[in-house]
Amino acid sequence: MCLLSRRLVERGVRFVQLCSGSGSEWDAHKGIEANHSKLCRGTDQPIAGLLRDLKRRGLLDETLVI
After folding, report:
1. Residue segments in the chain with a per-residue pLDDT below the cut of 50
2. Cα 8 to Cα 16, 23, 41, 63, distances in angstroms
3. What's 23's DSSP letter?
4. How far apart are CA 19 and CA 63, in angstroms?
5. Measured between alpha carbons, how far is residue 37 from residues 4, 21, 32, 51 in Å?
6. CA 51 from chain center: how many Å?
7. Which terminus of the chain is more solvent-facing, meaning fewer CB atoms within 10 Å of its CB: N or C?
8. Angstrom distance (rounded) from CA 60 to CA 26
């Protein structure tokens, strides 16, 4: 998903939303620390790679990341 997002940004797509998994795994009302710790382990490295890639290509200057 991160690679696809980068390619879309390279081609000038104005809005790209990256989702993790299916459903709403991040919406937790109990066990938040354990749940979010697990989910963060699976997303931190790919997102960091995407941001590094965008920066290296000069695309991060024109990209808003939320």
Report:
1. none
2. 7, 23, 25, 12
3. S
4. 17
5. 25, 15, 8, 21
6. 9
7. C
8. 26
